[in-house]
Amino acid sequence: MHTLVDAHGQASRSALNDPKWVRVTLTSIAVGFIVLFLCAPLVLVLYQAFSKGLDAYIHALSDPDALAAVRLTLLVAVATVPLNTVFGIAAAWAITRFDFRGKSLLTTLIDLPFSVSPVISGLIFVLMFGAQGWFGEWLLAHDTKVIFATPGIILATIFITFPFVARELIPLMQEMGFEEEEAALSLGASGWKTFFLVTLPNIKWALLYGVLLCNARAMGEFGAVSVVSGHIRGLTNTLPLHIEVSYNEYDVIGAFASASILAGLAIVTLILKSFLEWKQGKG
Amino acid sequence: MKQSRIMPGFKPALSFTLVYLVLIVLIPLSTLVFKSLQLNFDDYLAIITNERIIASFRVSFVTSFIASIVAGVFGFIIAWVLVRYSFSGKRLLDAVIDLPFALPTAVAGVVLATIYQPSGFLGRWLMDNFGVKVAYTPLGIVVALIFIGIPFVVRTVEPVLQEFDTTMEEAASSLGASRLVIFNKVIFPNIFPALLTGISLAFARGVGEYGSVIFIAGNLPYISEIVPLLIITKLEQYDYAGATAIALTMLVISFVLLLLINLLQLWARRRSGQN
Lengths: 283, 275
What we know:
Chain A is mainly α. Chain A is 80% helix and 0% strand. Chains A and B meet through helix 1, helix 2, helix 4, helix 5 and helix 6 of A and helix 1, helix 3, helix 4, helix 5 and helix 6 of B.
């Protein structure tokens, strides 16, 4: 917390250099922009969801299609997040604990899914598993569906959320170094024991934040999932797709009730991020 | 970095990382290249030079460009205020900046469309007072992309402003430079590369953005139809070749633009270094 106080002290001193009218104008612009552009949408989600009262809200969420969408969204998250978490830890361990050729290329490639449009991320799985895709005929012969079915949705979501955990862990573990781990190892602790008792406690908050970001995106992904899902009601609609369908059918309560669940998830993510920053500031 | 001799787990960790990367990212992405190799160049040109497709490229790139510039201006002001001034509620405002990162794009899309449609609370106000129609026009796309782009600018400029050495300002001030001169000659040149990075990140994200745009865009061919939507339309018609050609073109243009922006950044950084 000391560094924060110092930063604030310094900031207020140099702020004296800006004339008062400049300070007031800029602060008003910034606050006005944030309130109107960022806060208003968040408030409006809740306002619209409850605009016909609590009963209508509950009714909208207990609609069978909405429940099916919630179930599918949870299934996708459960299938996606653990895989990408294990990957993130393995990648961070390899990249930050060892030297090898092609390391910076590997780091760049891990970030690749971030620079691909969500729609293209869906398209590539259609090109692989769609009716005219690489494995299209084989899948048809074996009576399996990937595209317009749950496996396609899960695959596209894994691709989209691929970098999240690794990206949180790599800079932290780089900065941490590995003296503590070496000490444990040289005292005879096994590799796994060292990881669970030394590494994990040090990275747990960043790991949790990475997992939460990954989960939020997995539950909220729209573009990529929209390409591979086929929009079959009650079957391949995730929550974001259910929002789209309800909205396009002028079912405002239905759309915003589902949206409020995802907005709640976003708020939890933001709170955890602030908490994490506060913890790091303290440590 | 120093290599550790006793650290275990290199082979399993790296093998798993590589296998997973190849299976999930590299093989799927390579389909785009292989699929487009099946097209001969004339077919490809015929697809890409279609008037409706050219129009959608214009819509996507122009709206993303305008939105990233606007996000750059406001993002810079917000970062400045958050770093330099202190006022109550600042921490809360700072936390809200990340909302567009955390909020699913479909939610952002329906909310923004609801706010800016002719009967929405900002849409009606803008219509009555200025005669401006936002939703279902290219302006709507710009608004959605500003929303998406703002955290990219704030989060890249903020740390650079924070680390900026204020003694440089004090030195300039004690030598008699006015506040405006100090900003123009001392502060801005040092922040500019970061601002450019933020703007280009917002731009790159805007070009590929789909969920937050389609609800507010109105999706009129030639006017407010974005490239990602056209890819989906082609797929719905089972025109895989068309979809691939458009997607590949978009990826290549985006990468070339990012390369140009990186060069521009290098140039800006050198210049500010010389000053």
